[in-house]
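Recap for those who missed Tuesday's class. We walked through two folding examples back to back. For each one, the amino acid string is listed first and its predicted structure tokens come directly after. Nothing is annotated here on purpose, so try labeling regions yourself before you check the end of the notes.
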Amino acid sequence: MILPIYLYGQPVLRKVAVDITPEYPNLKKLIDDMFETMYNADGVGLAAPQVGLDIRLFVIDLEPLAEDDPKYADFKKVFINPKIVEYTGEIVKMDEGCLSIPGINEAVEREETIRIQYLDENFVSHDEVYSDFFARCIQHEYDHIEGKLFIDKISGIRKQMIKNKLNSMIKGRVNCHYRVKAVEGRR
């Protein structure tokens, strides 16, 4: 089932999410619905707060990028109760966008390499290191479960320049091809 994606201004996007257990209701269906929602919106990552749930869960599938670079093939993962335990490497600046902030892309600085501990959809524990675009995608989604958005990492002048777009988004005045939920309940 395709879920509405919560837009900038929704309070759930600013909450620090909570851990879940294997008993979380309908978890497999939620994960399937999150992937379906993400694909429908042409995204490569989606965090639970973006569908209105303040739980520590996000999904990533970089397969759509494999046509341009085969290294992204077969990178489809579920991250439950993740914790980034180490950030290393150079700081790299790259444009990012977000399904919860459609139509806005900004250059964001992030660490090149991370080490993350998480549970997969079967609650099997993992401790892995990722670099480059893999690390960037994970950090972006991880920020969501920490109540942060990529626009929090841009300069004050850039924030000022997108302020009107963000205010319009809060009011539901946004043009995107996927189902959304604005603060004022529009769309």
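Example two. Treat it independently of the first, because the proteins are unrelated.
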Amino acid sequence: MSINTSFIIPHKGREDMLIETLTSIAGLTTPKEQYEVVLVSQNKEISNTLSAFNETVNLRVVYNDENNTISHSRNLGAGLATGEYLAFLDADVALASNWLDVMIDTLKTRDNTALV
């Protein structure tokens, strides 16, 4: 099974909300083999708590200079993504467990839909 969706999450600063976001991604009904999470961090390092998400989601951490913009972080993450679809999230979002299934279904069933 190949990765069909790449979550791109730019992050700088506190990790508590990011942990909630990653927890919601880990709770998706979609099998983790079908998505990846590209976390573009402007922090110097990530905590052990964030590193532990490697066990529940396909997490890749990329470091970006803290002086770059959030758009730069999104573009950096998109350039490294391997999924067919890109899902841009902020680090303070909690997804419903069926979110990815609904988004993929919407993209596949609505002709000429490129953005959901």
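Answers for example two:
Helices lie at 16-26, 48-51, 70-80, 99-109.
The domain at 5-109 is CATH 3.90.550.10 (Spore Coat Polysaccharide Biosynthesis Protein SpsA; Chain A).
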